[in-house]
Write a structure and sequence with these properties.
- The structure holds 2 protein chains of 2 kinds.
- Chain A is mostly beta strands.
- Chain A has one domain: Immunoglobulin-like (Sandwich), CATH 2.60.40.3340.
- Chain A is built from 2 helices and 10 strands.
- The longest helix of chain B has 21 residues.
- Classes of the chains: A mainly beta, B mainly alpha.
- At the A-B interface, strand 6 and strand 8 of A face helix 13 of B.
Chain lengths: 153, 401
Amino acid sequence: MNKSRRRRHGVSVSGMLAALALVATAGVANAACPPNDDDGTVINKGDLLLAFKPLLKADSVSKAQRIPMARHFALDVQLCDRGGVSGAQLTKADASMPAHKHGMNYRPTIKPLGDGRFRVDGMMFHMAGRWQLAFEVQAGKEITRLTHDVQAD
Amino acid sequence: MTFRPTEHHSGRRILATLLFLLAPAAAAGTDGFSAGELERIASHGPWPTEWMRDPGNRVSANAAAIHLGHRLFFEPRLSANGRVACATCHDPARGFQDGRATARGLADGTRNTPGLFDVRHQRWFGWDGGHDNLWSASLRPILDQREMGGSATRSAALLRGSAALACHYRQAFGKAPKATDPDLLVNVAKAIASWQETLASPPTAFDRFRDALERKDDAAAATYPAAARRGLKIFLGRGQCSTCHAGPLFTNGEFGDIGVPFFIKPAGVDPGRQGGIKRLLASPYNLLGAHNDDATKGNATGTRYLRPEHRNFGEFKVPTLRNLTLTAPYMHNGSLATLRDVVRHYSELDEDRLHTDGERILKPLNLSEAESADLVAFLESLSPEAAPPTPVEPPGVAACR
């Protein structure tokens, strides 16, 4: 998600009217939803869309643009649903190596940024190989779990 | 219409097939490494790798502090009996190690002395990672009763009482050593750390091979011994060694249980990383504390997000594999005398010794004698051919009399 996209939509009168119409009928409209390529990887379950993007220091980016191992990174997460920005909360973000039967050595924290957006800090894949990212999203009493496999090298 | 290949067509087909079969070897620069292996080999360099000064140490990379730290590293008067210096265990002639299974300062210790080359690249310090920065790791042995048995009072008195040291201190920190004793002790450690940051090992035979592959220089790559090349194949593939021994430093900087006993003679256990995390979080010298010179605490990410786990018991740091030929014996307790012993440990790994909730990919490698020799040859190629000289002091520091 980038701010320029929001700003661009924000000054459009027709866009604002459309957004207001959507607010009246469904979730909170926002240019961040539905997510696009700039928002990173998009995974879904039912109506819930979760986009996540690793935030890496420039010197941590590998040639293949994969998440490098043994480097701390953050995640930018955006929650959307059919009506736009989801009102649900990201309550858990973690990762594990299923083949190795262990998780990370670090416990990430989640910071809500508003508009269905969250920042996850404290991530690190400390070994090379396949990691499974796991997210828990809570809307009311309903908890939705989403996973996605990523490769660390 | 049916197509009947002529002799000419058959020849072209055979040639195409041959080219297809040979393609991976050609792409690998005739070294027999797959594209994936080449990518992983490249990830172990370049060397030396980039280093940024330590933001938590305001005299990191400061020439005057390096000068002062050099003197303090060899200074036995920091110890209780005036006879033990940092260099007593961290001997420059032995890769800043002592060649003993376990350290001996004022008394016998229980862990192997780690070498100090390339220490500036580490995230955690000590076999249990009980320190998150180099200066606090340098401070601990000064105070430890089994190592130097010193104190803040002794360190401060030494600085104030020695005209030469006081002069170097003034050059490094911009003022006379008039701070409180505890603060002066921290600054002593920061100066020693700044000198240790200069202990960088040179490129090795492996680095030259890796660089030759990168620039597709087959002639230069061919000078890398065949045994080391075969050992590298095992390291990347069947051995899965690079899963943890990754990157230019050949370590992920984290911790693991590899089945090395953690019992201490005559009685007791070494809790390893579990104890290290407790010490770290209780230490006033960790990066979350007031002595961190990075006001943003942006360098404290690792400590801030640490997740203690049951499996940490008996885990020890994954060491760098550089400079191994200089730093025998091996493992946290120095229990393995040679690199051949280390390879045998993994080849005959006793899975019963591993944590039930520990790493699942550790399996006995069941290497033949020849394969073990190849893996040793590869490990030896990660060390410089000769012990690197102790770094010279930086120029441009005014003399102190």
